[in-house]
Amino acid sequence: MADAQEANARRLRRLRQMRKTDSITRASSTLRGIWEAGKKPDSIVLRSTLLAASDEHSRLTELILPRGIALRFYLLAAFEAQCRLGSGAPWQNVLPLKGSGSWSDLIAIDGAYDAVSGTYGTASESTPEILRSKKLGDLRLRQVKGALRTLEELGWEDALVTIPRGARGQRLYERFLLMQEAGRGKNQTPDIYTVPAPHWKAVKTIKLPVAFFLRGWIQVLNPSEVATWLILRMLSKWAPHKHFVSGVFLTAQLRMQTYGLHDDAWEDGCQRLLDFGLIRRAELPKFEGVDESVLRSIFSQPTRPRRRYEPHHWQVTDAGLDQDAAAKLEKELTLRQQALDSAAKTRAQMKPEHPTDASPVDS
Q: What distance in Å separates the CA atoms of residue 359 and residue 363, rounded to the nearest whole number?
């Protein structure tokens, strides 16, 4: 519980700093500019192979590092490609790594935090605005380069980018190549990213509403929350009738075998997505003119309490994406912090006191 309290407080502090510096607003504005200047897709289509795990390992577990932006960067790269290119078109990089309209401009971060002073290094009022902006730009560039390294170091077959090397073996980041969702493949010639067709079979693709990118969700959700959301979206499309009637779910064994996502990441991801309004617990379907009691008798789950290891049934709701992501998260994280702080205070008050003159107990 103490870990949850500290983690939530840290996340809330980072979010508030990003809102204070307009980092999320600026990144979202840059994304909207790319969308409006391009093909204006209603949704971004991903190949479901991005989520697949093998017996040996899972790419997702390597992409959901708490402070990493590798998964975010790959999704942003897919967004940029599909705003610019048609179905089947191969990817080539047209953006610089830094500067106006660059890859760095697509990323929102809070900056460098000094735990001793409890302040951000870029937050001093005495620091000129141009210098603060440069510091944040440098930090975003470092984050982008770190994301590219992570995506390349997934392994020969699984790498989601490749980065050419210079004469001295240094990475030429600005010339990176984006790979397809299944990775670069086994062959010498890499499987360079091509834009998938929106009409592909449901089992092959995941559709992300463009609001996920334009309303700031891509910037504020944790990697494990994004991974959980992607999985639920894929399940809802793969089994649309079940999703509509009784919700979709995953047992722990199937989840580990198929996606490699552990219990803590999944359970916490589902709970936060529920808080943020991006999913809901399964509800009865609505049929005009049909009595709700009849529907409940047909579609309701058993009235017995959910067993300890029985999975929840979830339904994805895209209406939540139309909210301002940063404002929604700040509200929900603030409420959660208040609840966690209150629980911690109650536990401290209930903790038994040990008398100072108590004799030691023999072991």
A: 12
Terminus-to-terminus CA distance in the chain, angstroms? 30
Rounded CA-CA distance 28/304 in Å is: 45
What is the H or E stretch that residue 207 is in? Answer: strand 205-209
DSSP conformational letter for 28: H
pLDDT tens digit string along 77-129? 999 999 999 999 999 999 999 999 999 999 999 988 888 888 886 555 555 56
How many CB atoms are located within 10 Å of the residue 333 CB? 21
Tokens of 249: 């779910």
Cα(64)–Cα(69) distance, rounded to whole angstroms? 8
| Token duo for residue 4 | 């949850």
Given a contact cutoff of 8 angstroms between Cβ atoms, the answer to whether 315 and 282 are in contact is yes
**How far is the C-alpha of 217 from the C-alpha of 277, rounded, in Å?**
12
Cβ neighbour number for residue 2 with a 10 Å cutoff: 9
Tokens 């004799």 — which residue?
359
The SS3 of residue 151 is helix
Nearest to 109 by CA among 72, 62, 161: 72
Q: Is 277 left (phi over 0), alpha (psi -120 to 50) or beta?
A: left
98 in Cβ contact with 91 (< 8 Å): no
Q: What's the confidence (pLDDT) of residue 134?
A: 78
Statement: residue 321 has pLDDT above 90: yes
As a whole number of angstroms, the distance between CA 194 and CA 89 comes to 5
**CA 270 to centroid of chain Cα atoms:** 12
pLDDT of the residue at 286:
58
Return phi, psi of residue 184, to 5°: -70, -20
Q: How far apart are CA 137 and CA 154, in angstroms?
A: 26
